[in-house]
From TrEMBL:
InterPro entries: Mechanosensitive_channel_CS, MS_channel, MSC/AndL, MscL_channel. It is a multi-pass membrane protein. Belongs to the MscL family. This is Large-conductance mechanosensitive channel. HAMAP family: MscL (MF_00115). Keywords: Cell inner membrane, Cell membrane, Ion channel, Ion transport, Membrane, Transmembrane, Transmembrane helix, Transport. Pfam families: MscL (PF01741). GO terms for molecular function: mechanosensitive monoatomic ion channel activity. The gene is mscL. It comes from Microvirga makkahensis.
Length: 144
């Protein structure tokens, strides 16, 4: 059983996945800091002190606090400002990953063009070619 586990855990895909998850967690912290410490203060300064993280809607009449942390202690609240911040985090991560994949694809195409290993379309099987020719002849009204 131990040998099977070692085989499973040391396979390339599992190790690559683990590395990806660790890097993703670290990247998430960086983006959280970028949004919380840089973007949101700038948005707050431009909009006159708007701070999304403290916006909430009380769901209980017992909630009288003006700060989110205090309001959560008093009763149920809908912390929609926090959702806005998380949504901005997601959009930033998605945009950065899009740019990263786009850049990698561009590099791959450039490298493939240099080495002449660009992906070629798959060869069309002979029976498909024949059926295509028959279809084309039938369209024109000609016969074999």
């Amino acid at each position: 059983m131990w040998n099977e586990f070692k085989q499973f855990a040391l396979r390339g895909n599992v190790v690559d996945l683990a590395i990806g998850i660790i890097i993703g967690a670290a990247f998430s912290k960086i983006v959280d800091s970028l949004v919380g410490d840089i973007f949101m203060p700038i948005i707050g300064a431009v909009t006159g002190g708007l701070d999304f993280s403290n916006y909430f809607t009380p769901l209980s009449g017992a909630v009288t606090a003006t700060a989110l942390s205090e309001a959560k202690n008093q009763g149920a609240v809908l912390a929609w400002g926090n959702f806005v911040t998380v949504a901005i985090n997601f959009l930033i991560i998605a945009w950065i990953l899009f740019l990263l994949v786009k850049g990698m694809n561009r590099l791959r195409r450039t490298e493939d063009a240099k080495t002449g290993t660009a992906e070629k379309p798959p060869e069309i099987p002979a029976d498909v070619k024949l059926l295509t020719e028959i279809r084309d002849l039938m369209k024109t009204g000609r016969t074999l």
